[in-house]
Model the fold of this input.
Amino acid sequence: MKKRIALSMILSVLLILLPVIANAHPGRTDSDGGHYCRTNCAKWGLQDGEYHYHNGGKSKSTPAATAKPTAKPKPTAKPTVQPAPALALPKKQNAGTLQVYFFDVGQGDSTLIRTTKNQYILIDGGNNNQGKNVVKYLNALGVKTLDAMVATHPDADHIGGLDDVLKAVDVKSVYAPKVSHTTETYKDFLTAVKNEGRTIKAVTKGVSIPLTGVEAKFLAPINSYGDNLNDWSAVLKVTYKNKSFLFTGDAEKASENDMLADGLNLKADVLKVGHHGSNSSTSKAFLDAVKPQYAVISVGKNNYGHPDSGILARLKNANASVLRTDQKGTITAISDGSKITFTTTKGASK
Done:
């Protein structure tokens, strides 16, 4: 009798709780331990069809498997692009002195000479990608006309930017050694010269650039050098009163030896070191003849080993103070004819 009463009470309790259980757990729990809500979803803080779990009697919901993933908001602004570092421009010096600007054009050469009478000579123009920078340098220095442009030899890191210069400023005369090249860079240079209505004046030993109060004479090339374009380099010596500068392009030992054998006066206070400090140039005999107080190396990041450690040691042994464009930026030499001072766009002045 007691068993029947107990069983009847259990059945009554189950009948009472069944709707609650049905509401709390609509649907069977799947193998992942959760299920989809089908009825009375709002009561449990869910949406119809929302997949959820039960942990310790509390629901933790996740989006239904069939629901589309929430789209990520589109960025409202473009990613910030870091601007390229500003080009360090040289300062224009006071008139009445000889000024030589060794432009920072990376791995290449480009040098501007300003005479005491405001005549301008540009030697080389760096690589193709440096042409616009050379024009910016010229603009910063107020150069509107070049009395002479010298293309030392056809290598791209010397003449690449000259077509940009020819298009940007008036060039009265163009000098280059009588050697050609088949590269597009050299063709661009020739085309730019032609488009400006100019012809190229051939450079050999003894040719001078007509200037007032300053002597500018070519010392090389002396001979023919076949396919060695570097030895064809136009070598220019500029003298103002008691001070002089020697610009050697990429002239190597064959050309240096010819200048030595010819008995030329190579002595100069400032040497633009040949071929970016390569060991192919600046032989001991040549350096002993030049006896420079200062040596300027135009060089940038490169895979050639420029400047060569042996050449740097040779310059040090010759008591020449070395200034490098990769360390100092654009290097400016200022001379009153009796002394030379330097200023640079980065690093300490000398």
Observations:
- Residues 2-24 form the longest helix (23 residues).
- The radius of gyration is 39 Å.
- Residues 97 and 116 are 5 Å apart (CA to CA).
- The longest strand covers residues 215-220.
